[in-house]
Specification:
The protein has 716 residues and is of the alpha/beta class. It folds into 4 domains: 2-128 and 142-196, 2-enoyl-CoA Hydratase, Chain A, domain 1, CATH 3.90.226; 296-471, NAD(P)-binding Rossmann-like Domain (Rossmann fold), CATH 3.40.50.720; 494-597, N-(1-d-carboxylethyl)-l-norvaline Dehydrogenase, domain 2; 607-712, N-(1-d-carboxylethyl)-l-norvaline Dehydrogenase, domain 2. Helix 1 (26-41) links the parallel strand 2 (11-16) and strand 3 (47-52). The longest helix has 21 residues, at 327-347. The relative contact order is 0.07. Bound molecules: (2E)-Hexenoyl-CoA (TC6). Residues 20-21, 23, 59-64, 75, 96, 98-100, 122-123, 126, 128, 130-132, 273 line the site of (2E)-Hexenoyl-CoA. Its main location: other. It is found in: Peroxisome.
Length: 716
């Protein structure tokens, strides 16, 4: 709703009230329509201020309402009515003015903001465009270049930047409502024509800026509809009168609203918030577990991951002891880390990195910290050695975390004096940039340890997801069948390019082989060696540990082709460290020789089969994970894939995508592929998937409840 009050003198104050962010629900819109009418009719009122309750102007349209039929007054005429008022109307912006919230403010004649306010048009991140006139008013106010940037990226900007761009009329450090009241009193009676943005001309697109932008957004967000529609709306603004531009905006918005992509992106928005409210099968959650405050931490091992973790911690203001026992590595890290910290702080607009880092080669130096993150090589015996040492040098009560990407947390906990204080904190490279953090709880991890790691993740700006302790945890466990299928497809006749192109066309920023070249083929090789699947003494067959196995990636790696770092991998590069992948005749000759050696006849494989085999195998493992209670719900898996594995956000996440494709269809295709490849257990449909199909394929939002019920009745 919106409340109305008349301040002493002649100013009407309209306050939006819809906690927590004063989203423009039907009730709020109705409230605005009614109160604006009231201000208009009251002869004693000469000017109006619109503000939001509890220090937040407005977080935009109410996203929760998008799933149902549109009720209440629509936004566009409501904003037009405000713009048409013949008394000055000012938006008093505190906290946020986002999406429809900023569009409402653009309909006001003046905009005054608190210096800490954030403004933006993030509709594109929800699969929409600023469809309440924002795509037409903003370029009229700040020009095409700046509007294009804000609308196609959806980024939030500070009040200072908004003032510079011309979005705001005034920024204050004081009470913003008082300031706005004073402002409108001052301007009461002045002509308003030039303040009505819809009546101003839009600058024309003289340098074909928008054509160039279209090419760019199509490249950058492959397959995503909203960024393209945003540019189209700006093209309309630049070339058509306002009314026709608004018609185009409405037409584009309707198309986007009805697209699966908008539903997927809105689901992704809510899943990010759902995973923050973690709960464990034991019943532990934020409600009953308190996080410990952390001000001093240590990182053990200063390879790529360790360095990134040090920077991520230091950026939160935590003092970090960075330990590396190899002198050469320590010397390199002590040069590299401060530079990384400086760069990242600059990127985030922070002046001086607040944390203090001390470098050491001595493990004894961690004795005073409250939390340690071990980031040594992915080798269980080495990690066990480190944990044994830590438990003897750290003071009692220190949290011991491992950045392992898939090793058994419980085994590490078992060698410590307080197994309850051991959890996994699985970062993704580069650790100071990537948003995802898997917080891995073992059977003995205490709720307090999980809460502390989750809280620390939040402080570092991560999307932290609590996951169970199983090989590969959630992300890498699902990656295994995906990679496996990609290798099998090469055996059967596909080329690395064909596989990568199908996946990139789906929306992944990089296909599996390009990604493997980037991360280094030796990484996977070492993990397979640790699992006893490859290495000296392992027989070179295509069946290992009772299932089909492709030795292809081992052979490429063993040929010294480790990917970008050696200039050769699944592709060739200009040289070691090269970035541009080119098809390599060596790989094609190698694949042909391999097929001939194993009597495999190459067949032509369609992109549809590539997608089904890779994605459905990955999704099937997601169902197994839910069945095993290693993730609390499909949202957890989807957040992990969107934030850590490049799953295209406009497809929501693998589990959401399964629902979009249809669970029946996924089941049928898995059955088909498993029938053709009975020696591939990952293609055997999971029991949970079968159960969901049997009960009529409920929507993804209902799975959590269904799984819990099935578990109670021991159906899973
Ligand atoms: C019609 C076409 C034109 C217009 C289109 C639009 O405006 S599209 C919209 C364009 N606007 C945006 O894209 C802005 C989206 N919102 C944000 O970016 C952030 O929420 C924030 C920066 C406003 C606050 O961050 P923060 O870290 O302080 O808090 P938090 O993120 O944890 O959220 C707290 C609670 O508020 C909830 N909630 C939030 N916004 C909305 C909403 N619009 N609606 C409904 N609910 C919303 C959120 O789900 C959560 O609920 P829970 O889990 O407690 O039940």
């Amino acid at each position: 709703m919106a409340t109305y009050s008349r301040l002493p003198g002649s100013v009407a104050l309209i306050t939006l009230q819809n906690p927590p962010v004063n989203a423009l629900s039907a009730a709020v819109r109705q409230g605005i329509v009614d109160t604006v009418q009231r201000a208009l009719k009251d002869p004693k009122v000469t000017s109006v201020v619109i503000c939001g309750q509890n220090g937040k102007f407005c977080g935009g349209a109410d996203i929760r309402e998008f799933a149902g039929p549109m009720l209440g007054p629509p936004l566009v005429p409501m904003i037009h009515a405000i713009e048409a008022v013949d008394k000055p109307v000012a938006a008093a912006i505190e906290g946020v003015a986002l999406g429809g919230g900023l569009e409402l403010a653009l309909g006001c004649h003046y905009r005054i903001a608190h210096s800490k306010a954030l403004l933006g048009l993030p509709e594109v991140t929800l699969g929409l465009l600023p469809g309440a006139g924002g795509s037409q008013r903003l370029p009229r106010l700040i020009g095409l270049t700046a509007a294009l940037d804000l609308i196609t990226t959806g980024r939030h900007i500070s009040a200072a930047e908004a003032l510079k761009l011309g979005i705001l009329d005034q920024v204050t450090d004081n009470n913003v409502v008082d300031q706005a009241v004073e402002f409108v009193r001052r301007v009461a009676g002045q002509p308003l024509d030039s303040r009505r943005l819809s009546t101003l001309p839009c600058p024309p697109d003289v340098d074909s800026l928008l054509d160039k932008a279209m090419v760019k957004v199509r490249q950058r967000s492959r397959g995503a509809l909203a960024p393209v529609a945003c540019v189209q709306a700006l093209m309309a603004a630049a070339s058509l009168p306002y009314t026709q531009g608004m018609e185009k905006e409405r037409e584009l918005l309707t198309t986007l609203f009805n697209s699966g992509q908008a539903r997927a992106l809105q689901y992704a928005f809510f899943s990010q918030r759902v995973v923050g409210k973690w709960s464990l099968p034991s019943g532990a959650s934020w409600d009953n577990s308190a996080a410990r405050p952390i001000s001093k931490a240590a990182v053990i091992g200063l390879g790529t991951m360790g360095r990134g973790i040090v920077v991520a911690l230091a950026l939160t203001g935590i003092s970090v002891v960075a330990v590396e026992t190899q002198e050469k590595q320590l010397a390199e890290a002590s040069q590299a880390v401060p530079a990384m910290l400086q760069r990242e702080a600059g990127r985030r607009g922070l002046a001086t990195p607040p944390g203090v880092i001390s470098f050491s080669s001595n493990l004894q130096d961690v004795s005073e910290v409250e939390l340690v993150i071990e980031a040594v090589f992915e080798d269980m015996s080495l990690k066990l050695q480190v944990f044994r040492h830590l438990t003897s040098v750290c003071r009692p009560g220190t949290l011991l975390c491992s950045n392992t990407s898939g090793l058994d947390i419980d085994q590490l906990a078992a060698v410590t004096q307080s197994p309850g204080l051991v959890v996994g904190m699985h970062f993704f490279a580069p650790a100071h940039v990537m948003k995802l953090l898997e917080v891995v709880y073992g059977p003995r991890s205490s709720p307090e340890a999980v809460a502390t790691a989750m809280q620390l993740g939040k402080r570092m700006g991560k999307v932290s997801v609590a996951v169970g302790n199983c090989p590969g945890f959630v992300g890498n466990r699902m990656l295994k069948p995906y990679l496996e299928q990609a290798n099998f497809l090469l055996e059967e006749g596909a080329t690395p390019q064909q596989v990568d192109e199908a996946l990139e066309e789906f929306g992944f920023p990089m296909g599996v082989f390009r990604m493997s070249d980037l991360s280094g083929l030796d990484v996977g090789w070492r993990i397979r060696k640790e699992a006893g699947l490859t290495g000296p003494g392992v027989e070179s067959t295509r069946t290992r540990q009772g299932r089909r196995y492709s030795p292809l990636p081992d052979q490429v790696c063993e040929a010294g082709r480790l990917g970008q770092k050696t200039g050769r991998g699944w592709y060739q590069y200009d040289g070691p460290g090269g970035r541009v992948a080119r098809s390599d005749p060596w790989v094609h000759i190698f694949l042909e020789a391999y097929r001939a050696e194993h009597d495999l006849v190459a067949r032509s494989i369609a992109p549809e089969e590539i997608l089904e085999r890779c994605l459905y195998a990955l999704i099937n493992e997601g169902f197994n994970i839910l069945q095993d209670a290693m993730a609390a719900g499909p949202e957890d898996i989807d957040a992990i894939y969107v934030f850590g594995y490049g799953w295209p956000r406009h497809h929501g996440g693998p589990m959401f995508h399964a629902g979009q494709v249809g669970l029946g269809r996924i089941l049928e295709r898995l059955q088909h592929h498993h029938h053709n490849h009975p020696d591939v257990p990952h293609l055997k449909p999971s029991t949970l998937l079968r159960r969901l199909v049997a009960v009529g394929s409920p929507p993804v939002q209902k799975w959590r409840e269904f799984i819990n019920k099935e578990r109670v009745h021991s159906q899973l």
